[in-house]
Automatic annotation (TrEMBL):
SUPFAM superfamilies: ACP-like
Residues in the signal sequence: none
Domain of life: Bacteria
Residues annotated as domain Carrier: 1-73
The name this protein goes by in its record: Aryl carrier domain-containing protein
InterPro entries for the chain: ACP-like_sf (IPR036736), PP-bd_ACP (IPR009081)
């Protein structure tokens, strides 16, 4: 999955644009609560990604999420 798509999905969940979210911004501080994270992870799982909700809930920056996606894409 393309990371630009991930960033766009996160931005949509926050009702903003992708360029408004920095790689090191805390997504929780920007308003992304655990239910929205779970919804995003579930959508990505349905698209074929093997993801662990807890890793996304614990590290809530785009940089951490990008690393998680890269690890799973191998």
């Amino acid at each position: 999955m393309d990371f630009d798509r991930i960033r766009a999905d996160v931005a949509a969940a926050l009702y903003t644009t992708p360029d408004q979210i920095g790689m090191e911004d805390n997504l929780t501080d920007l308003g992304l609560d655990s239910m929205r994270i779970m919804t995003l992870v579930t959508e990505w799982q349905e698209q074929g990604m093997e993801l662990d909700f807890l890793s996304f809930a614990e590290e809530t920056t785009l940089a951490a999420w990008k690393a998680a996606f890269e690890t799973r894409q191998g």
